[in-house]
């Protein structure tokens, strides 16, 4: 009989675990170089170099504050669809917490009415589910160090913005059912919006000086029926995402194809240019690259599955046959 105490961590490499935890602690305590975060974000968010640098600077400056009475940073990403706004939030979570999924994400289209908006802070005492707390407040009570993403903020009910106003201004929010005051001073708030992006794009291209450009963008949003002047004033940084140029779009497609191959257990080493061009043409026809992953799966999933599960391949190349259909073969270095 083994008398040694049970150790749940015996299944992992403890030295590697300690190293990763140390890296995480360093990042959350701002012990990282600005260029390190810029490099990481730039690998995932293409064609937005100025915005990447600004995001990294805001996060680093916020983390450096030792006594905070508001979130680490409250950032609003504005711009047209499919320019990398949500991808930036994922890249931030990956850099700060080691995993892009380590964030609370709320699609504001699901919070259009007062009833749905109340789900963030939970039902009042006496109502069904009051003991379970809010979808925003309860996770924050168990882990204060979070990146919180509010996607398409302009679609949210005004009550959601009121809750955010409290978080941005006071650094806390009260949960309705429990009455607990929830701390947000170690959180990073990211909001995305397409609101007034055409007017903002004009200002962005016409005004070169950063401070004047920021003021002009804020004035546009203050005049918007979606946001109050007080709300806009409390945002730390409003970052403008510009439409992607052709080269950036092609790079995004290549990255997503490689990521899809990885998801099926494959390492894509070589890819036929015509596949990238065909997918690019499809995205241009619809003016939307957000469903690119679905297009890639429709085109390549079956040949990826066959290559991995039936042929046992790992390192692959993808070409096209005479009819234009994708063909997978083993990659051999020349």
UniProtKB/TrEMBL annotation:
<dbReference type="GO" id="GO:0005737">
    <property type="term" value="C:cytoplasm"/>
</dbReference>
<keyword id="KW-0645">Protease</keyword>
<protein>
    <submittedName>
        <fullName>ATP-dependent Clp protease ATP-binding subunit ClpC</fullName>
    </submittedName>
</protein>
<dbReference type="InterPro" id="IPR050130">
    <property type="entry name" value="ClpA_ClpB"/>
</dbReference>
<keyword id="KW-0378">Hydrolase</keyword>
<dbReference type="InterPro" id="IPR027417">
    <property type="entry name" value="P-loop_NTPase"/>
</dbReference>
<dbReference type="Pfam" id="PF07724">
    <property type="entry name" value="AAA_2"/>
</dbReference>
<feature type="domain" description="AAA+ ATPase">
    <location>
        <begin position="71"/>
        <end position="245"/>
    </location>
</feature>
<dbReference type="GO" id="GO:0034605">
    <property type="term" value="P:cellular response to heat"/>
</dbReference>
<dbReference type="InterPro" id="IPR003959">
    <property type="entry name" value="ATPase_AAA_core"/>
</dbReference>
<dbReference type="GO" id="GO:0005524">
    <property type="term" value="F:ATP binding"/>
</dbReference>
<dbReference type="InterPro" id="IPR003593">
    <property type="entry name" value="AAA+_ATPase"/>
</dbReference>
<dbReference type="GO" id="GO:0006508">
    <property type="term" value="P:proteolysis"/>
</dbReference>
<keyword id="KW-0067">ATP-binding</keyword>
<dbReference type="InterPro" id="IPR001270">
    <property type="entry name" value="ClpA/B"/>
</dbReference>
<keyword id="KW-0547">Nucleotide-binding</keyword>
<dbReference type="GO" id="GO:0008233">
    <property type="term" value="F:peptidase activity"/>
</dbReference>
<dbReference type="GO" id="GO:0016887">
    <property type="term" value="F:ATP hydrolysis activity"/>
</dbReference>
